[in-house]
Amino acid sequence: MPAELGGDRVSDAPRLRVAVRTLCDVTAREGDLDHRFTPSPSAREGLEGHREVARRRGAGYLAELPLTGEVAGLLVSGRADGYDPAANCLEEVKTHRGELSRLAANQRALHRAQLRSYGALLCAERGLDAVELVLVYLEVGSGRETRVSEQATASALMAELTERCVRYRDWAEREAHHRAARDAALEALAFPFDDFRPGQRPLAEACYQAAATGRVLLAQAPTGIGKTLGTLFPLLKAMPRHGLDRLAFLTMKTPGRRLALEALARLGAVSPSRQGDLPLRVLELTARDKACEYPGRACHGEACALAAGFYDRLPAAREEAAERRWLDREGLRALAAEHGVCPYYLGQEMARWSDVTVGDVNHWFDDHALLHGLARENGWRVGLLVDEAHNLVGRARGMYSVTLRQRDLVRLRRAAPAALKAPLGRLQRHWQALVREEGLADAGEPGRPAWRQLEELPGGLLGVLQGLAGALTEALGEHPELGVEWQELLFETLAFTRLAERFGDHTLCELTREGRGRARLALRNLIPADFLAPRFAAARSAVLFSATLGPPDYQRDLLGLPADSVWREVPSPFAADQLELRIRADLSTRLRDREASLGPIAEEIAAQYTRRPGHYLAFFSSFAYLEAALTRFGATHPEIPVWAQHRGMAEAERDAFLARFTADGRGIGFAVLGGAFAEGIDLPGERLVGAFIATLGLPPVDPFNEVLRERLQARFGRGDEYAYRVPGLVKVVQAAGRVIRGPEDRGVVVLLDDRFARPEVRRRLPGWWGEPVMPGCR
Which InterPro entries does UniProt cross-reference here (predicted)? Predict the structure, then answer.
């Protein structure tokens, strides 16, 4: 009998509900897609803008007024931004940046439709015959309000809202039918194999319980048990039983998306005929630069044929996409081509209507995350699945960090239009003054530092950056020919000023001088918990899984997970006799000992290769160390085939590197620990029989990492562990995990450093590895 998970079902939510914003998104948009030179305020700026408008109003002003009404068979609801009962004036507040005249016509039409819909609900609820309607546009830089006012009768507003609801109702009825069919199918969904793999069922049960109780689960589960299927299946089963509206499967890299799509296909979401047995809408979200059909063109109707008339063709494309259900990258692209619409923005639209979205972690966790925004807007109960979650700390730090480079500003200033020369010149002067004040030398100049931690943000420079952002916004509107580099400068400047507003002990402000006119000013996030905690709170439940997720306190602290988060470690299905573990306790790979280590490492690799010829990976802490080891090995053992990772490898080069690992081949691939070949690759059986790891993977002891250690010590009392030991050993275990991929695999891992013999380090290694052989130990 197929395996199933059980549980209680929650009651169905009322059918045919719609939010005002969704109703208007579907029925009020028309004309061209237009995303030119109008950088939107951040969600934080938008929220603060709404609060500022409310503060300016009188004491009787009702902010965030909830409104609900049944219209043409739909329960329509939303929150009007503000209502003044004394003046009988209803307001809808919209924040913007730059000149209001540049706001796209379809955006203005959408805003007016929303306001008039709220007006109809207000009049019906309060028995009003008429109301004054005001669109309030707030420019976030200056705080200037622009008011667009109109008088409207209740009868006209209700007639308009009724017409919208009638147009939307057919779509809503089909959506309700789809939800009912989806939930019924998921109730009956069976595991696609006769039984679970060893370890897979405990993982699935823990995931189901997390969804049932609304908690975060940290699941450390070994490679080879089928984590992707073992997490997706229980979350799909939980959707109807515990009222989950959407699932988001979030990955760190493209291979993770492929595995998720393959698992969904295995569960019946799609078949070779492109129509699966499971009525589940699956969407793969792809980065804009990879989805764009015309790179380099601006996103508006005058520049791109796929943007011209986009909203006029969108309804037909949306309906067919919903009917097809399976929207991976290629399927979405083909459908978009049939309807003459942009595939990227069609994907953005279908994120609103898909049951399972497969995409990068930034789609939920970064500052402008699409899925997080949709969930908040629509009140979704979302289940998150985060694959390879041991990388989330590092990825999140990157999301909430930004760097400005002086050389980019100098180069752009030479070709700047007149309106930008002055603000760029002011920035250059402030930058030079800051470098002088901090006493920074060129990198490598003895006696003076080239790096400095700034205890406070440079206030004068921040003011100049804000001025530059305003000037760039104006210039890009006036001169669309300026192009991508200037837009990128604007986005970086805005990102810097936004992060500066939230500056605290979670972030480091650093100034680095790399040469004359080549300084870097950066805000580098150290503790992402402060930014991520609200994102986890916004999800109904979340499952973070990886083969190397421990220790749990590290993840809880740095990711800002709730106090009731659950830790589960799934036992490995592998046995100690599958892996020969050797620790060279007579070797040191510390920086001072690198040169002396090269000969012994070459001999150890050659000896192991002689004992068991086959394919091996040899990992080193840096490209410099790798290159030195490769040179020594090639000189002493030229008969053994070798190939190496190099800096900046293109995707085709990475594929060629891995293609060398054939089942009947031999040789050694030299790679960097923590790089592209140290995790996320699968070389089962004889394709890889062993790995050498010539480093503990510890980050370098440099000024930045010492500041990180101090901040982590101050916040959590575990500075050394969190800054150095945990990140290093995670890399080691990930790299070693390339060797044993299945129950039939046999292999060897050689750890080349005396520190691996220390008890506190060995305790961090997987328990199933067993006792090591330690040449050189007495």
Answer: ATP-dep_Helicase_C, DinG/Rad3-like, Helic_SF1/SF2_ATP-bd_DinG/Rad3, Helicase-like_DEXD_c2, P-loop_NTPase, RAD3-like_helicase_DEAD
| CA nearest to 77, candidates 146, 20, 10, 5 | 20
> What does the block give as tokens for 86?
């004394």
Question: What angle is formed at CA 303 by the lines to CA 301 and CA 308, rounded to 5 degrees?
Answer: 20
Cα–Cα distance measured from residue 358 to residue 351, given in angstroms and rounded to the nearest whole number = 10
**For residues 264 and 328, what is the distance between their CA atoms, to the nearest angstrom?**
11
End-to-end CA, the chain: 55
Q: Is the dihedral of CA 91, 97, 99, 103 positive or negative?
A: negative
pLDDT > 90 fraction of the chain, expressed in percent and rounded: 68
CA distance 98 to 478: 11
CA-to-CA distance for 561 and 171, rounded, in angstroms?
Answer: 38
Q: What span, in angstroms and rounded, lies between the C-alpha atoms of 619 and 751?
A: 10
CATH superfamily of the 576-769 domain: P-loop containing nucleotide triphosphate hydrolases (3.40.50.300)
Contacts of 572 (CB under 8 A, 6+ apart): 199, 222, 766, 767, 768
CATH topology of domain 17-168: Lambda Exonuclease; Chain A (3.90.320)
DSSP alpha helix (H) spans, 443-590: 459-478, 484-501, 529-537, 552-559
Q: Quick one: how many helices (H) and strands (E) in the chain?
A: 27, 24
Please tell us whether the domain made up of 402-525 is placed in CATH 1.10.275.40. yes
Q: Which residues, in sequence order, are CB contacts of 246 under 8 Å at separation 6+?
A: 354, 355, 356, 357, 371, 375, 380, 381, 382, 383
Cα distances (angstroms) measured from residue 201 to each of 164, 218, 544 = 48, 16, 16
Encode 663-698: b = buried (16+ Cβ within 10 Å), e = exposed.
eeeebbbbbbbbbbbbbbbebeebbbbbbbbbbbbb
In sequence order, the 6+-apart residues with CB closer than 8 A to the CB of 161 are: 71, 76, 116, 117, 120, 121
Q: At 454, phi and psi to the nearest 5?
A: -95, 120
Say if CB 709 and CB 723 are below 8 A apart: yes
Q: For the chain, which residues make up each domain, given as ranges? A: 17-168, 402-525, 576-769
Tokens of 56: 């300016």
Integer Cα distance of 665 and 109 in angstroms? 64
> 285: closest CA among 335, 378, 359, 225?
359
Tokens coding 437 = 């004040």
pLDDT, one tens digit per residue, over 205-262 is 999 999 999 999 999 998 778 899 999 999 999 999 999 999 999 999 888 899 999 9
Amino acid present at 669 = G
What value does the mean pLDDT of the chain take?
90
Q: What global pTM score does this model have? A: 0.89
Q: Beta 507-513 vs 519-525: how paired, if at all?
A: antiparallel
